[in-house]
User: What shape does this take?
Amino acid sequence: MKIIVTVTPKKNVLDPQGAAVQHALESQDFPGLKAVHVGKIIELEIDEQGGAGWEERIDRICRDLLSNPVIEDYRWEKAS
Amino acid sequence: MKIIVTVTPKKNVLDPQGAAVQHALESQDFPGLKAVHVGKIIELEIDEQGGAGWEERIDRICRDLLSNPVIEDYRWEKAS
Amino acid sequence: MKVGVLQFPGSNCDQDSLHAFATVLGVPARLVWHKEESLEGLDLVVVPGGFSYGDYLRCGAIARFSPVMKALKAYAGAGGMVMGICNGFQILCEAGLLPGALIRNDCLEFRCETVNLTLAARREAWQAPLGANPLRIPVAHGEGNYRIDHAGLAELEANDQILFRYADRPAAIERRGNPNGSLSDIAGICNREGTVIGMMPHPERAVESFHPSRDGLPILQTLLKLAGHR
Amino acid sequence: MSSSSLPPNPDPVLNVSITPELIEKHGLQPEEYDHIVQTLGREPTLTELGIFSVMWSEHCSYKNSKPLLKTFPVEKKDTSRGYGRVMVKAGEENAGVIDIGGGWAICFKIESHNHPSAVEPFEGAATGVGGIIRDIFTMGARPVLLTNSLRFGDLEDATVKRLFRGVVAGISHYGNCMGIPTVGGDVVFDESYEGNPLVNALCLGILRHDQLQKGAATGVGNPVYYVGAATGRDGLGGASFASRELTEESQADRPAVQKGDPFMEKLLLEACLEMMAIPGLVVGIQDMGAAGLTCSTCETAGRGNAGIEIELDEVPQRETNMNSYEIMLSESQERMLVIVQKGREKEIEDVFAKWDLHAAKVGEVKEGDRMVVKQHGVTVADLPARFLTDEGPVYEREAKEPAYLAKTQAWKPDEIADLTKESLAEALPGLLGDPSIASKEWVYRQYDHMVGASTVVLPGSDAAVCRIRTGEGDKFVAIANDGIGRYCYLDPHRGGLIAMAECLRNLACSGAEPLAMTDNLNFGNPYKPEVFYTMKEAVKGLSDCCAAFDVPVVGGNVSLYNENHRGAIDPTPVISVVGLIEKEADITTQTVSAAGQKLLLLGGWPDEIGGSQYLQTVHSVKTGRAPEIDLAKEKTVHDLVRQVIREGRVKAAHDLSDGGLLVAVGEMLFAEEQNFGATLELASASPARWDALLFGESQGRILLAVDSAEEETVIATAQAAGVAVQSLGKVTAEPILSLRTGGSLDHSWEVKNLRDIWSQRIGKAMALPGLPS
Ligand SMILES: Nc1ncnc2c1ncn2[C@@H]1O[C@H](COP(=O)(O)OP(=O)(O)O)[C@@H](O)[C@H]1O
Ligand SMILES: [Mg+2]
Assistant: This one.
């Protein structure tokens, strides 16, 4: 099973990378851009039999390790 | 409209970030992990009216700016 | 008095910190391997700079789970003195021993230069030895941009927890004082009690005759003094 | 010799017969192949052909440069100061080692990663740094500093900016993460490097004499270990790739770049040093650089005069189903081969377990002289090791003087007008703002140049100086990098002489006594006689200068086929000399420190304009003859400068190089936190041409700043040594640089303006839209 965790900067936290990409796109004549955010994606390949409570375990590692709740939000999904 | 671009290391390219996360998860007793890959995600918010050829334009910036085709793959989708 | 300098895989300022305490200041000091589980007998624990675990996920994120970190939490919880420098500051934030987080420098580049710092806290232990002068201390980091929410910042200010701020450079040089875009020019903070400290600049690189300054000495000496008063 | 053919390879793909196309694809000449068949007594297998292709590539065999390299002096004659003896000579091991006295030694080497950086600047430059670091710690040394020499095309070009940004970020990433300070280097921008940047990285390490390690496999039965990162299909054929011209088609080779992992290398470094500190455990150690497993196995066997046998199934692998060809040629980074004492396997395994690294026993040292490689128990390669390492082809290529030289050397200064008040006013800021002269702070502020807390002179002065802690007092090493392609293009022999002389001059200015040199020869395709001519002449220049100064060459690297659509790059030997400063008090930098200090010019008034940066920047011509150089005079000036420094009379010293006198004076006024001014009295010079005086690059000139009380003594000392000395004027607190020429050229510049141009030129060009700089 493949889990895709997405970690993005929180709305009110400065996102220098997003700003840089936005400027770069604008200077390359990419019109209509309203905002850019840069985050991380972590793909986990795990053995099929996740066992009971595996969803909470994913949540826990997202909170504890994969994201920093002070500055980041996360979401995850099972890949198709 | 929101476009989500995902950039991941090419299949055969070393992924030290993925390896580090995998190692950390394993040492935290997260069993059944087969592989971990870490990539980047870039969320673009653009004005609804993309205009003709906007899909090619997205492809172009993915190739030229957002990813490094030598070592990375990219994919993009319209967010729901 | 005994100083311990933590050593994670990828730490690279561990030897410099050890040298500053053991050789320059002549205080007994030793390295503490990240797999050690006790910090007993230490009066001051330094979490040094470097790239723990390559900083591959987020700076300090993985180091936080090292066995020694459990011991560090207990140690800090009991009022022990802890100093995190650069990557060490990042680790302390990740571990929740200090509030806030450090993100990419706003210029998106690594910055190594000597900055001017002012002592921002009114804390007496620091005021007396450091005074008002700007201190010249080297920085070297890619992610030193301190971030915290409004309430958190207000709390830091209310409790006099902002220890150091980046100050302006001399007019002759066209260079901004704040090297990373840090919120409110914050360069270093402490917990309420003043026992856990984190700073991005490297005081251990400003202790010898040929260093850019010797302004790191009073900082390290103040730490030792605070550790002694425990 | 066994002439029976090998069993079929476990991977059927590899069981093809060797065709002329395959031979050509592997970069081998038909005669070379015939020689292989004759020696083996049979056709090689495809795996073996791959092994030959990398071992006999330019990169590993130096087949087109060996005869030239043989001309370098490799030993220091005068070691009467108690240091400087060459303990490991160039070519003997992975890097040369020099005694610095007190039982300590240094070990350093430079290496290029030009072609990988052209393809993928970040990873190319990063792995270049990683590779040279391994070369140093494989000798038992702890790496303590890095430098780099970079050459790019025109900074206004978007591709050049992308390459420049990527290369600097890659170097910064790797060095910073390793915790080794990058303390110096040089950067030159010139159209000739367009599309073919030069990225040369240097590492220096320190060791006690008893810590020296050798890369030899000895002791039959001793186990052979593979340590570090797992092997993947990285950079397959990279070593042979580096030896071919960078053509359009190599764009398609793109996935062939390797990616580095500095965190892994940091662990590998610490684990290796810990292992090597265990007495008697390590018999031999060799890093896996270009051609990884291939090169390390046959070189250790070759040096040890022994055989070696490995089983590829034991090699840690990152990818599945790798065949013997892929494993043997992989360029995965952060790996080493270690031969340890039989029976002490547990000791090495424990060290690597502590650092969470692989330590896999992959084979052992054998009787005889064969390098035998097995996979799944089947022999896939069986070759005489020394045949691979020592008996590769060597060619003396044809040399022919390039036709353009007759024209450029015939150039006369009267083709351009001398300075007017207006052109002078513009010329100085123009030169200070030329990216090749402008401050490189944008580069070095991205490098952690202070980690280690031992950098005494930071980047930005003539030479970097680092403290070495020996436990019994400190020692100070100074290092500088130089190499002006422009001079070598205009006069390759003088260009070689000047590269070396300028580097030595930089060391003299810092107060250092030179110890030894390492060089990286960056040239075009050696099969072009004109290219080979420039290489031959430049090497002769380097070699002559080394001999004159008794500075041996202890190692280096050759990078050929540096070409772009217009042809070869400017011939660019990049050299670096390391020196020693005995006392901290003698360490000298290039910036003045107080108003009232006097400026003295040693070596006489500059009077040549040919080949100068001035001609290139202001008149847009790269022509004329490179300046003359007199080695004896040069040496007298260096010795004098060191003498007055040791006598404590010098506040600052700076050599005249790119941009000449006014640029050098300007740079001396840009102090760390303050701008000084100066008043220069030049009326007495009454030169034939003012441009030659103010911007010419005559060699052997050094500027000193001294307290006014010392001025007379220093002048007298210079005169006694037979060195021409001119009193130029004095340093002022008011930041204005004024020129008094006794005529119409009098002019003043605001130093703050000059400094802003100089310090911001590169940063402005490289600024990212919308981001603070
Ligand atoms: N690539 C680089 N990396 C680090 N430092 C550099 C680099 N390029 C230049 N520098 C530093 O900038 C200063 C000026 O360089 P350069 O103009 O080449 O000096 P010089 O003319 O004296 O040889 C030196 O201190 C040098 O070490
Ligand atoms: Mg110089």
